[in-house]
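Minutes, project check-in
Item: structure for the 381-residue chain
Input as provided by the requester:
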Amino acid sequence: MLKLADLAARPDFRIGPLTVSPPRRLVEGPGGQANVEPLIMQAFLLLIDAGGKVVTRNELFDQLWGGVMVGDDSLNRAIAKVRRIGAEVAPGFFEIETIPRTGYRLTGEILESGNGPPVELDTERPGSTAISRRALVGGGVAAAAVAGAGGLWLINRSDPQFDALMRQGEEAVDYGSPGTDTAKYFRGAAAIRPRDAKAQGMLAIALAQRAEYGEPQADVGSAVGEAERAAQAALAIDPGEANALVAMCMLQRSTLDLATFEDRMRSILAKDPGNMIGMRLLWGMLQTAGRSHDALALVDRALAMKPLAAGNNFPKAQLLWILGRVPEAEGLAYHNLVVKHVDDVGRRLVADAGLGDQGRNGAEAGRHRSRWAAGQQHATA
């Protein structure tokens, strides 16, 4: 079983356009950088080290969890998060191929870049952006750097409680039901780190969703006001914080025409290709405008990153049905219910969509499909 000490001992390396720092759990590329959880970094390294060979599910379970019994969903979520690394920092550079009932392997340009051993980085060379041991030992220099950077080192160091709240909030966004209160997680994280732009941005999104879809009418004003304040706080720290920009688009949506809304969302996704809420809002708008093929392409892109998220599977089945591909829509519903055992997704698809029509007459199926279309507002939120 891989341990945290293994990550700490492994040197930084470069593979193609990616710079990977296992000790800092950081991956950098042309599209930006991604801070990843230890387990996700370990999974990524196992796939890189395999060099395109299949890493079996059993190997991954043994190396990532050891003797701890976990379900298939835990591994599926881990692989989905590794996929997101590529989408965020180097779109198109690598993909993870699923080998049914066997395992996973890396594909794409990353294999051409990795024909030789990964290029280890000299973190103490002149001009390096990494902090060397000698720099840390020089207490006076380090103190001056922290003071000059406004204490950013203190802000960015790991905090288990903060990390746990952010992870719980993001998982609630991806896998929770429309009524899930995601704001409580991000509000807690922002209280711990009020200068963390992402925490403030995600809080703004969660509050904007509550105001638009789930909050009692009497509290809409307070939710909107808090969402605006959180978005403004995020943008004051980082003017390009994608989640805050998405939240502002949500809050201003009623004043924007479809073309302007699309332009804004595509501009945000160009900077943050893996922003799931942004993709969901955009494909919802595309579907509203009758551009179902464009919407389906965006849903497929989201599914490649988060294959188990209900908010991704539900719209795909709906779009397949709209496009007349009913057998595929029905297959997706039962695939989620029976094969993947994602009960909430599958039951929602079957019950709400009326797919399969088993034990229902035509009128009942029609009513279910009407409910399904009305429920799209929640699925894309």
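Outcome recorded: The beta strands are 13-15, 18-21, 26-29, 32-35, 55-56, 95-99, 103-107, 119-120.
No further action items on this chain.
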